[in-house]
Amino acid sequence: MRIGDFKQSYAADEAVFRSGTVRVWLALLFAALAVFPFLAGPYLLYMADLTGVAIVAAVGLNILIGAAGQISLGHAAFVGIGAYTSAILTTRLGLPFLVCLPLSGLSAAFFGVIVGAPSMRMKGLYLCIATLAAQVIFDFIFVHWTPVTGGIRGINVPPPDIFGLKLDTEFKFYFVTVPIVILAVSAARNLFRTRVGRAFIAIRDRDISAELMGINLFQYKLYAFATSSFFAGVAGCLQVYLLKIVTPEHFPLHESIRYLAMIIVGGLGSVLGSIFGAIFMTMVPEALQSGLALFQGLDDKLMSYLFPLQTVVFGLLIVGFLVFEPHGLAEIWRRIKDYFRLWPFEH
Amino acid sequence: MDILLQLIVSGIAVGGVYALIALGFVLIYKATSIINFATGEFMMIGAYFFYTFMVMIGLPPIPSFLLVMFSSALLGLFIERAILRYMLGQPTISIVMVTIGLSSILMGLAEIIWSTDFKSFPPLFPRAPIIIGDIIVRSNLFWGFVAAMAAVILFALLFKYAKVGVAMRATAGDQMAAFSMGINVRSMFTVAWSLGAIAAALGGVIIGNIGGIQPTLGGIGLKIFPVVILGGLDSIAGAVVGGFIVGLVENIAGGYLDPYVGGGVKDLAPFVVLVLILLVKPYGLFGKEDIERL
Membrane-spanning residues where (chain B) (predicted)? Predict the structure, then answer.
């Protein structure tokens, strides 16, 4: 009989896929992802690439906040470190894309560990503000260390090439982004099946109990910062190659808040939630723009309200989700799924 | 030497205003344990209220000032009742994000209502700069400092002697005990938000009077974090001391280092100090240390 969470063996409980049907749906999703670029135009592909970058970064942030319970207001700074690392390595040393990708992740992870180090002595609000300081300081470095970062003019990056194949269009870049996103998502999903991932959750739920159970708090908090920043760095590298330029304007405090909004709207602590959130928060401004464009004939000034309106909607989404749906889109998705799984019964 | 003195004096003057805004922040944190990322936007909205009453409606300065206090108190009350009340007992990250979302809404609304153009108040004080010995202080800065200090002292007295202030302190100390002594804890939360909004709005009017207003004025609110962390999140004396320290640090560091790095040190220095303080004294100078038990 199909009821809620009923499992008959440990194997079923530990399985990656709950049932065979999931595999079928997943195969369909991959097929759709593979067919998509042949149907969509450059704009949609660009949006898809941008969403991919956001997903990688949001998944990373969700590991730190949703799983390990360490608040960070500096995620954009780590994305920025990854971006600058790959831009500098490419333009100065001429390293290829595939080498830059892990290196930018590692360099972001390195700085993540440095920023995370104070987490031993503080938590909650104080940590939140310490990471805010990191965001401001890195932002300053991006702008003012002109010989290395190019200052406010930034660094132009040539299109990446993989084994001689130039990825100069959104279409070609799509086939790099999607595998990296899939890799990142499955890595995050499997992280929670390992000792490290379980330790993160224990620390989030009750840090003192976790310590009593033999988890070295400091070590695992640093792991959390390193993992999260690694994802951010990879996302930064992708973003540089997608936009072909890196400037400090790409990584302000507001960008950190946008990543936070993604995981809040999507669902804290859920990998699927990060994906939903990243897609949602990337699409909403675009949807708003096209929505306003429909009414443009009525009032000439309408388009000038676009940016403030986006700001207001952004805030309303965050507040609305936190007040009415604190577990985010992932929870809504779960309810929909359960409804169909249990239909025609209610429980 | 003259430059140093000049920097110190303007540092103190700005620090007084920071202290007032930080007070708005501490009032809310002390009573409700909510860290208000929208403090800067409360400040900005307060400045726009003043602009609306004085320039757009044309009221004289003092009634405008009173109306600003009244309307920002209403704003604080409304926000507490409509949003924050539902966030009690939620994890820190959710509460932080709600106030961030709030700041985004307020900023967007300000842009829609008052447009992004730079605006300034008509002169409220005599223009002649105040001269103390060899040091020249801009009159707006001087009177701003005086007004901010007066407000800080008023708030401190209110907190110490008025019935509502005592009740708020009791709530902050132990909610359960305060509740059983007949204090309406919920209404104390509302009062704290209203008072916090008033303090921030007064700070906004003063800052707007010094440098004009724009919807991005709330960005100054970010500097409040070094101020309050320095003093300790829940200490009123800390907010004042922190305000002066940050005002001094940013002016002195900005004055001496800006020529070497091409500007921007003023915004950075408070955060560098913040990191150093957090490493040495994680609960600030006067903050209450959390002791946790299982």
Answer: 6-29, 41-59, 65-83, 95-115, 135-159, 191-212, 224-248, 268-286
